[in-house]
Amino acid sequence: MVSGSSSYYLGSVTSYAIKVKESVLGVPSHVINEHGVVSSEVAAAMAQGVRQLMGSTFSVSTTGLAEGGDEHYPEGTVWIAASGPKGTKTRLFQCNKGRNGNIREFAKAALSFLEECIRKDLI
């Protein structure tokens, strides 16, 4: 972490397991069942949940497939959500750089999207 980051970075939740998405972040099970875990709706619920949990002004979430795509999404697909006082926005992002490269690109895309949403006063 960057020195002084505790003044603006409150924390994070790594929620690989569906039960963590539901029990910690408050993602309703019907949203996961209706839309799938890799979806705009789940990403939005995750961002809203972590924002509420942390008591933060803004939050960002990702849910996707760094490797091993499925029938709906290929490997390297992620839904990103950014949430703030004015609402929540989502974006689909895809890349094909292998597991580690995809994870790196997902993180960069998520932070970039959050910054864009804040700068444009969208959230």
Strand residues, percent:
15-25%
CATH names the topology as Maf protein
Number of helices: 4
CATH H-tier superfamily = CinA-like
Shape: globular
Strand order, main sheet: write it out. Answer: 1-2-3
**Using DSSP, what is the number of strands?**
3
Q: For the residues shown, what is the average pLDDT?
A: 96
**Low-pLDDT regions:** none
**Fraction of residues in helix:** 40-55%
Number of separate structural domains:
1
What can you tell me about this protein's structure?
With 123 residues, this protein is an alpha+beta fold. The protein has a single domain, classed as Maf protein, CATH 3.90.950.20. It is 41% helix and 19% strand. It is built from 4 helices and 3 strands; from the N terminus they run H-H-H-E-E-E-H. The chain has helices spanning 18-23, 29-35, 40-54, 98-119; strands at 59-65, 77-84, 87-94. Strand 2 (77-84) and strand 3 (87-94) form a beta hairpin. The longest helix has 22 residues, at 98-119. It starts with 17 loop residues before the first helix and ends with a helix.
